[in-house]
Design a protein that fits this description.
With 177 residues, the chain is mainly beta. Helix content is 6%, strand content 58%. It is elongated. The chain starts with 7 loop residues before the first strand and ends with a strand.
Length: 177
């Protein structure tokens, strides 16, 4: 009987910064732009069954606003101001639930629901996420939304002649070990 029992175990994991990437893509009246997060942290409590993610008991992911870099200090400063960094220095995500789970080998695809907090405003978001459990857990996905949903005024520059588009896309590959 023991040979046929599925291998099930829970794991407490933390973000592996060296194998995690997060970027924010957007547009402006001049050019498209990307900001890349240089720092993040988070924790996850997951259940692994037969080498694949079975469930997420809890998960958090945090990005310090000032760790977002575009390669242009003026743009970074405008973004930090728009994101209300002084009063709300961390962008936070807290997992709530998952459904439509499909498992194929070490890979689990799912629809997730969580709370994203930007600039002190929290909203429930839905995202399609892929989890690969072959080396810790690597969550990947993306979400597109309007900054105005989080009461963020899209940044402007040069006395308002350069305007950032309201819609942004966050792309992530977050490894937890």
């Amino acid at each position: 009987m023991l040979f046929f029992a599925p291998l099930v175990y829970g794991q407490q994991l933390t973000v592996n910064e060296s194998n995690t990437k997060l970027s924010i893509d957007g547009t402006s009246t001049v050019h498209d732009w990307t900001m890349v997060a240089e720092e993040f942290d988070g924790k996850a409590d997951v259940t692994i069954e037969d080498g694949a993610l079975k469930s997420i008991n809890s998960l958090s992911f945090n990005v310090p606003v000032e760790s977002l870099k575009s390669g242009k200090s003026g743009m970074d400063d405008n973004a930090y101001e728009a994101l209300k960094e002084e009063d709300h220095p961390i962008i936070k995500y807290e997992f709530r639930s998952m459904d439509n789970v499909k498992i194929n080998g070490n890979t689990t695809t799912m629809s997730t629901k969580g709370v994203l907090t930007i600039g002190g405003v929290s909203k429930i978001i839905n995202m399609n996420v892929t989890a690969d459990a072959s080396n810790g857990i690597k969550f990947s996905g993306d979400i597109t939304f309007k900054m105005s949903v989080f009461e963020i005024d899209p940044p402007t520059a040069v006395f308002g002649t350069i305007q950032t588009g309201d819609e942004v896309t966050i792309k992530f590959n977050a490894q937890y070990k």
